[in-house]
């Protein structure tokens, strides 16, 4: 009878091990879910801090820099046109000044260029029209025309300047001065004439007439900042 008792005892031990395995699996499964939840929370917190945290202001000096190095050669084009917007780079008649190899912000005789010319205005310009100077600079060897295949936006810049200034037309002064040695009768007559002229001027006053005045000189200066 001893062997059956031993066999029964062995069977009881095997049943206990089978009962512990599901518990271990449940514990491992719960631990894995905990780790996954922590990872999800960490990822959510990371993206939330990126999108909703206040952004630090960027130093403007880090965003602005010179396109050209000091002393780098530049070419210049100056076009005269009656249109404020200019894109007629192929019109040789509009190109009145072209210079090459101008050292960038190198102040000296080699960087100073001058030109004197005679400009014959059109009939439209004579009739109170407008005239603009379109100045373009580009790194030597690069064109200012955006339609040119070799055009580089970071290698050129330009500016438009009005050559004509509009000012109100001066009015003639019809009043007479009462200063000076005059007789009493003449003074009274002059006062009456001044009063009449003032009334006439008040009646004739209308909207101001604006006249175009030419600027005889154009000065082009390059402004640089290497203070970073």
Molecular shape: elongated
Number of DSSP-assigned strands: 6
Q: Would you identify the regions where 5 or more consecutive residues have pLDDT less than 50? A: 1-15, 184-192
Q: Which structural class do the helices and strands define?
A: alpha+beta
Rg calc: 44 Å
Number of helices: 4
InterPro entries: CLPTM1
Subcellular location: Membrane
Biased composition (Gly residues): 7-18
Region (Disordered): 1-31
Topology:
Blueprint: H1 2-52, H2 60-63, E1 73-81, E2 95-103, H3 123-126, E3 132-139, E4 156-162, E5 164-168, H4 184-204, E6 210-214
Antiparallel strand pairs: 1-2, 1-3, 3-4, 5-6
Explain what you see.
The strands form two sheets. This protein has a four-stranded antiparallel β-sheet, with no helix packed on it. The chain has helices at 2-52, 60-63, 123-126, 184-204; strands at residues 73-81, 95-103, 132-139, 156-162, 164-168, 210-214. The chain has a domain at 73-165. It has 228 residues and is α+β, with helices and mostly antiparallel strands. Residues 1-15 and 184-192 have low confidence and may be disordered. The radius of gyration is 44 Å and the shape is elongated.
What distinguishing features does this structure have?
alpha+beta, two-stranded antiparallel sheet, membrane, elongated, Cleft lip and palate associated transmembrane protein, 6 strands, 4-stranded antiparallel beta sheet, 228 residues
Summed up:
The chain is α+β, with helices and mostly antiparallel strands. It has a domain at 73-165. The protein has helices at 2-52, 60-63, 123-126, 184-204; strands at residues 73-81, 95-103, 132-139, 156-162, 164-168, 210-214.
């Amino acid at each position: 009878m001893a062997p059956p008792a031993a066999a029964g005892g062995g069977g009881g031990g095997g049943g206990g091990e089978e009962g512990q395995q599901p518990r271990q699996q449940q514990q491992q499964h719960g631990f894995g879910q905990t780790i996954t939840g922590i990872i999800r929370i960490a990822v959510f917190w990371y993206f939330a801090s990126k999108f909703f945290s206040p952004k630090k202001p960027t130093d403007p000096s880090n965003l602005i820099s010179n396109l050209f190095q000091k002393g780098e050669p530049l070419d210049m084009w100056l076009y005269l046109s009656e249109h404020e917007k200019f894109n007629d780079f192929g019109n040789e008649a509009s190109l009145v000044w072209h210079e090459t190899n101008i050292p960038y912000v190198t102040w000296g005789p080699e960087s100073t260029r001058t030109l004197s010319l005679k400009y014959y205005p059109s009939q439209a310009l004579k009739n109170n029209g407008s005239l603009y100077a379109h100045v373009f600079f580009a790194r030597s060897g690069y064109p200012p025309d955006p339609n040119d295949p070799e055009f580089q936006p970071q290698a050129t810049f330009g500016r438009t300047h009005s050559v004509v200034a509009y000012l109100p037309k001066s009015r003639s002064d019809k009043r007479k001065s009462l200063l000076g040695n005059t007789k009493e009768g003449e003074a009274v007559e002059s006062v009456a004439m001044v009063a009449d002229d003032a009334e006439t001027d008040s009646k004739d006053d209308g909207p101001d007439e604006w006249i175009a005045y030419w600027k005889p000189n154009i000065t082009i200066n390059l402004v640089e900042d290497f203070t970073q």
